[in-house]
Amino acid sequence: MFNNNLYPFIVTSMVGGLLTLLGSVGIFISIIIQRKVERLQAILEEFIDLSYQSDLNLSGKMFNLIEKYQMHYILPDNPRQIIMGYMNITIGMVIALWLGLYVLGYQSPFHWLSIIYLLPLIALGLIMLWFRRLLQYLIDIDDTPLLGSIIPAPKRLRSISYLSSFINVSVKSVLKQARLSLHLKKCDLKKAESPWIIVLKEELSFDDFFYFLVCSYEKTPIFLSFGEIVFDFPCDGITGKPSPIKKNLNIPLGEMQIKNEPEELTANMLIFTKGEKYPINYQYILKKGGAYYAPSENPEVSIDHQITYCLEKDKITIIKNESNLPFIKEFSGLFKLNGTRLYLPKITEGKVSGENLKTSHESVFVD
Amino acid sequence: MNNIVDFASTIRELLSQPFCLPKESNYLDLAQVTDFNKLDLEKHIHILPEPNPIAEATFLIIQSMKECHLAQTKIGVNELLKAYLNIISRDHEQECSEVFSDYLFEIYLYSLQKTYPYTDLLWNYLSNCFHVVSQYLLEAGYVRGCEIFLQQIAAMGKTAAQKGLHTSSIQHFLHTLELRAGELGYTDLAAAAKNHRFNLEIF
């Protein structure tokens, strides 16, 4: 048998050993995370620097940087589980050994006051769990509050609102790389009366903004659409890779009928983002070619100082409107940031009502 | 030769000369020999190469680029493309497209030089021309020619994107071309255009 006097000391030194190991795991993790954060911040900085060079074509570079960022961002799943398992076992062991020491040192009879002796154990147990949570936050970077503010999730980098409100980046130059363009296509080529589907194309999938679009023919509005554009790209079904950003994205905005199919249509699109107060105005001239309408040249992009807006509780409030774009006043009450896209398929004699609004349910696709 | 009209007329004169496809020539080109047994050196060694007006025209255009005469360069490229559309025929659609797009590529490569100040401007001009040329080829039914031409444009677009030049107009026209080709029933061409569009900025 062991010496009863010595045994508690053996257990105590075991606990000491376990805690030392746990501490060194903490240091090990923090070194890894520190290197990671440095890498990620360097990429982030490079990305932000890119946004200032609006006269160059940077969409390829931006895409590659976001992909690179994503690559450095996540820790592989397997080591993560090993570290968590190690921590669980160590903390469990330590608490069990402490309890054992209590048992060894216990002397009957039982007295209510002896519960006070248990309080340090409870406190230590809680602190150990806190420590575990802290390390878990460090390892599972995704969506944890600890590192989220220093290094944003990769999908944040495609969010125009994030870029414009947290980082002082020109929305216009970022959107220039997204190359927003409008296309109208006939749903069914064989039918003459087939409705036209209107698609917003993005070469680079920047999201998290509100749009307001009016299509007109010789200044008579024929189509209206507004809503918030937010993407949710799941991991690739085949390779399992996360995809923070995509190329050649198509967003169906709605359907409309075009009477007589004129050769030319015009379209105005306003883009509202969270960090700004003036919307960006895109002006397109859409030319007909076969069974489609496409912009004949690059759109005219400008910051529209005639409209001022602000954001209140996920709703866009128009403070000042001196522009001659129609229907902003009528529908501004419905400018909500809830991820839906609404459209008016028909505008008869310039009269509109909110009852005819339809929701575009078609999902975003790559083409 | 600083006068634009003189330049244009010289180029047009060159391009209006009969044009000989490399395959039809008797000149022995070692790079083109496929059957080693038929390599008859004694018989062919005295034959001179056929005149190549397109190469001469290309050289003139590159000369104008050396002098940084952008207006001349634009006119030269324009004449070259017009000659291409004029010469292309059903019999030698493929060869003709290959020859012309290769020379166009040479001009483009020269424009990427660091000493050339108008890279952006010339690239924009080229992109605008490509749109019309390929649309013309498509509408006239030169599907194979259009495919070759697109391939060369895509190669140019790819290098352009790497150099930071804007490729939005190329992207855009590849898309409209794809739609139009699909409408006309040329599914292969539409698929090729889509593929080029998707690969344009992958590097």
Describe this structure in words.
The complex is a heterodimer of chains A (367) and B (203). Chain A is elongated and about 100 Å long. In chain A, the strands form 2 sheets. In chain A, strands 1, 2, 3, 4, 5, 6, 7, 8, 9, 12, 13 and 14 form a 12-stranded antiparallel sheet that branches. A two-stranded antiparallel sheet of chain A has the order 10-11. Chain A contains 8 helices and 14 strands. Chain A folds into 2 domains: 7-151; 171-366, no CATH class. Chain A has 367 residues and is an alpha+beta fold. The model of chain A has no long low-confidence stretch (mean pLDDT 86). Chain B is an all-alpha fold and 203 residues long. Chain B has one domain. Helix content of chain B is 68%, strand content 0%. Chain B has helices spanning 4-16, 41-44, 53-66, 70-87, 93-111, 119-139, 143-162, 168-184, 187-199. The N and C termini of chain B lie far apart (40 Å). The A-B interface holds A 56-61, 63, 179, 181, 183, 185, 189, 201, 203, 247-248, 289-292, 294-295, 298, 367 and B 160-162, 164-169, 171-172, 175-176, 179-180, 183-184, 194, 197-198, 201-203.
List the helices and strands and how they pair.
The complex is a heterodimer of chains A (367) and B (203).
Chain A: H1 7-51, H2 59-73, H3 77-105, H4 115-139, H5 145-148, H6 160-166, H7 171-178, E1 181-186, E2 196-204, E3 209-217, E4 220-229, E5 247-256, E6 264-272, E7 280-289, E8 292-295, E9 300-303, E10 307-312, E11 315-321, H8 328-331, E12 341-344, E13 358-359, E14 365-366
Helix pairs in contact in A: 1-2, 1-3, 3-4
Chain B: H1 4-16, H2 41-44, H3 53-66, H4 70-87, H5 93-111, H6 119-139, H7 143-162, H8 168-184, H9 187-199
Helix pairs in contact in B: 1-3, 1-4, 3-4, 3-5, 4-5, 4-6, 5-7, 6-7, 6-8, 7-9, 8-9
